[in-house]
Queue: 4 jobs
Job 1
Amino acid sequence: MPETYTPTSATTGTWTEEEIRQQPSCWIRSLNNIDNLRSAIDSFLTPLLHKNELRIILTGAGTSAFIGDIIAPWLASHTGKNITAVPTTDLVTNPMDYLSAAQPLLLISFARSGNSPESVAAVELANQFVPECYHLSITCNEAGNLYQNAVDSENAFALLMPAETHDRGFAMTSSITTMMASCLAVFAPKTINSKTFRDVADRCQAILASLGDFSHGVFGNGPWKRIVYLGSGGLQGAARESALKVLELTAGKLAAFYDSPTGFRHGPKSLVDHETLVVVYVSSHPYTRQYDLDLLAELRRDRQAMRVVAIAAVTDPVIEAGPHILLPPSRPFIDMEQAFCFLMYAQVFALTQSLSVGNTPDTPSASGTVNRVVQGVVIHPWQA
């Protein structure tokens, strides 16, 4: 895009709104591109996936790290591979705890800009620690260091997202979800591809349309002082990302937390008071769903929170007993697919809260102490 391009969002005039709205189309564009690259992707990955002891680490910093939190549980179960999520911010400080020379490694790096110091350092440390190391870089910036280094490396494959997903707003929105969808399509092409994922894109487009001009309260009217997002399994990763969006776009003026429904009872529930909004992401899995509904009912019985909202695809008397949002009808979705739907609500909520506290969503940190691309990180050479 040329530098003179300005956002065309209908109501807020921000990049953040435009980047939220563009997501469904970006996903399909990226998955179509993966279809076109399938032969090259398979040529790189197939020999690696046949290695019995291969470790696969999904990594990134901040929101990019949460991609791994959201998709790693399902990908590991679906593929039967040793897939875990470790943030680059942990890899660079404690490489000795996460990297082993004994097993071949595929490091999957997610990054919007690809210029965060930890993103580049994690790749270098992995090469240093693991003799048989390979890289898949999934990024939104063709000019970024992560992409350029992967293109020039014999042990790496670079996968570039559509240019508009290099979000210009402060918070990552279309970048995180497009990288999520793309990684899923790379490793689970029979389940997640440009055809099957159109159902997810259509449902999310319907969600965005239902929210109109984003001017009304997504979860009801506040004002809130705290918000808690709760989700089980990979949906806990979605809850974590949802909480971060609020912190980022309100510059911490609205305190945000996350947990699993079962973990929340073990202490964190203490933070709930009459100024707290609680949002429960209800699982589509019949077993896991029981635990989500148990806590939902408990929180409502407690009458401590200002509001407890459930978001679900399928209704239930427990859900209907209080404030709730039902996803637009579609075929049954697994939680991995539902995560995209839940993030639509979370992103719009964070945008509206940013505006309500008087922030500029594209540049919410008035002090400049928090930046779109992290600054001030000193990468120290590894010393055994």
Note: The first strand starts at residue 55 and ends at 59.
Job 2
Amino acid sequence: MTRVRALTRFIDPFILLLMATVGLAALFPVGGSAAEAVDGATKIFIGLLFFLYGARLSTQEAMDGVRHWRLHVTILACTFLIFPLLGLAARGLTPWLITDDLYTGLLFLCLVPSTVQSSIAFTSIARGNVAGAIAAGSFSSIAGIVITPLLAAAFIGASSGFSADALLSIGAQLLLPFLAGQLLRRWIGGFIARHRVLVKIVDRGSILVVVYAAFSEGMNEGIWSQASWGRLLALLAVEGVLLTIMLLLTTHGAGRLGFGRADRIAITFAGSKKSLAAGLPMAGVIFPEQTALAVLPLMLFHQLQLLVCAFLARRWSEEDESPGSTSRSLPE
């Protein structure tokens, strides 16, 4: 038990479930009528997932956070401007380092919203502006429902078959359920607040269904013959460089912009991270024909950012607690 607890400190247990789901799809991929049934279930679960997002988010909490607009604009700029620009710059790495399909997934990773839960958790551990991280993560999630598909249409559309019909499909599967959740929050918000464990099960279960459907289809199409281990290791190295650049830009940039220590911590964690929970279902809608390859970069980046940010959060927390601390590792 002690070894299991030690392992979960460095590896997100949900990532282990995701990898187990990938293994299940590799051994028992669905096809034919069963695949159609799983595809239908996937669409239902995606709609349910974004309905719960809408029902959980307090409009009042989001509005309260608007007052710190400089913090939110900075994080949104990191998420939807700097990240996409770096993703576009990585085009020069194809095809000699990573394949075109993996690059499409890498670019998609750069377009998805920031995380909410883990950004808040790391900001709290490092004694940063938790309220700001909550509001910024919420804003990013809401904006991402609209901005991510639009950026995907602009930057990936020509190679992924993205069209106006696909954009309407995204609106029907993502935005409408989210708005329905917001409208019904007045009546169901209390129930959701009292049954967080059940909601979490549905939340995570929805993502696992999406992953199983995606990798089942990928196995039937020979996904692993398209992405060798050498290419995957190269992709992981590229993502390590991408994360390092974003961490340096957010920590140093926030200091240059005059933010205090607590705000700089929130900007670092919210501005350098990407949401697996939001990205996976979006990929299932945006890339219906190549979801498995599209989500591989996001899954790798998610685990990488958790490991690195967990280390930074613990280090900054220890510095803040030490007598006479000057927060040397957090640039001014």
Note: The chain has 15 helices and no strands.
Job 3
Amino acid sequence: MRKRNRVLKAVTTMTMAMALIIVAACGNDSSSEPGNEGKASEPLQKVKIQLKWVPQAQFAGIFVAKEKGFYDQEGLDVEIVPGGPDVVIEQQVVNGAADIGVTSFDSLLVNRDNGLPLVSVAQILQKSSYRFVADKSSGIDSPEKMKGKKVGMWTGSQQFQVLAFMERNGLDPQKDVELVKQGFTMDQFFNKQLDVAISTIYNEYHVVLESGVKPEDLFVYDFEDAGVGMLEDTLVVKEDWLKNNRDTAVKAIRATMKGWNYAIANQDESVDIVMKAVTEGSTTKEHQSTMLMEMAKLVKPEGFTDAQVGSFVDDAVQRTVDISLKYGLIKAAPDLGKAIDKTILADAEKS
């Protein structure tokens, strides 16, 4: 009997010890903590972001947000879809091929004017990056001298500032110049197939300089100085997608703006991240470093805080609308309350 009692006591002690271990393990399960119920088993929500161009530092904030896990932290599985010269971003978003698209704000206005149900939820670039460049040997020392010349223009959703520039300087883009579809390299300019090339200050302009051309050997026309500088990179979504996925939009914008602020503050690391996504042999780390340096000035101009990155500056928005109306890009003044949803970024900043 005494031996049997000792056995029972040992079994009881072991049972109690096992129970304590189980309780302790349950207590360390993060899914049991308030607000974490089921999080461990919840799948990430898939979101597609369509770029307006090929992978490069122009979109550093998006690539950084994915690489650093900012999207994952928001419960999002983001796929970054490259663009190109023939990709119409607005159609990609309206057709459901992408959830969020990077396009130009002027292009958003034009496409809304044509009836597409799109809305902008964050404004990435705060001023125009566009520059026309011409070799000094061309003699094109004023916009008026572009008459009769071959002028490069990107198509898709990126031609509207060029048309406004022509109209602003008294040139009929249909009659006075030969508009030539320009590729995403500067080869046509180098090969003298263009008298005037379109460029951005963060990319193609520096491609020309990197080829050995000196700044003093170029005529450069800044679209801001010409009075036709319009807002460019903006994030757009389809109206009904936003209505049904508002929380997802807030999370995506929060992570993307976090990515941009990180990219601007950590440019060397961010360029390394971008280089993982570029087409091999298509660019150099040095060029992407220059691109991010210039992008940082456009995304976060002097005086901007981290919280202001992605915001809509009313004066710049209205200037883009006024130019679009003045030069016939849109037929009627847009309802900005429907074209822009400022509450997404505002809610993203709360958490």
Note: Strands lie at 45-50, 76-81, 100-104, 118-123, 130-135, 150-153, 178-181, 197-200, 218-222, 233-238.
Job 4
Amino acid sequence: MRAAYVEELGSPDLIRVGEVPPPRPGPDDVLVDVEVTAVNHVDTFVRSGAWRTPVPFPFVIGRDVVGTVSRAGPGAPGFAAGDRVWCSSLGHAGRQGAAAERVAVPADRLYRLPEGADAVDAVALSHPASTAYLALFTHGRMRAGETVVVLGGAGNVGGAAVVMAAQAGARVVAVASAEDADHCRGLGAHHVVDYRDPGAPRSIRAYAPGGVDLHVDTSGTNDLETAVDLLAPRGRAVVLAGLRTRPVLPAGALYLQDRSVHGFAISNARPDELADAAAHINTLLADGTLRPRATEVLPLDEAAEAHRRLEAGKVAGKLVLRVAEGCPVGGTAA
């Protein structure tokens, strides 16, 4: 079976594309013929060893997959051969990754693809949109009528968060570049602040004089002094990126107003939490509300180059690897 894999942890140069043993599915697994997989920052963390998790060698890289069911085990009665499906949680905790011709997916981590959904769009959205859902609803406990600030509002996770928060009835402040202001408004943001403006916090306070209820930093900046100061009483700040940041936590401003800071990683999400996210994402995919801003599709042979570019910060939008012959090789521009 052809796959992109590593035999030790380290740099992107260790990624090989070639033959590896096919998966051996268990009774609760679904065997999926892969069409496309996406490239995420967390994939580079696992491949490099920055994020320690059990890794069986040879290790197939990648998290996200869109494909077609080949065979379902007896413990996966909800799936049948020919079903088009997706998953966003391979390649972690001992599970082999997604960048292979065929993968075995636990049935409780697999979801049907909505009728007519584009495979490239779906795989590009699967990880960032799942992360956005968990940030807003699972960990952020967002409710309609609240004010939500999204840092990195034009990015992959941030854009999905803006869409979801606005759809759920929140007042959304997107923090992004001035060049992306119209894009963020198109996603549903009610107010857009330029992250490069030294007066950005004042602009947010002017828009929400009583404070913001939820502060989601998808940019990984993690300026908790500013974030906590912007929160309303009992407001929540969610931390989900910035692996190596070491922010200052203003304890007094935090506990005197019953504010809180919540950290989470999608890799730790339970199957039921991921299923809730998938159901929400499928609804937005089906009606066209949620779409990736830009995708670039590369052949599987360029997996190492995709990792190099992502680590170098040279990716705008989302990189997708084509695994199956006949899948599209283009993408959508910003």
Note: DSSP finds nine helices and 16 strands in the chain.
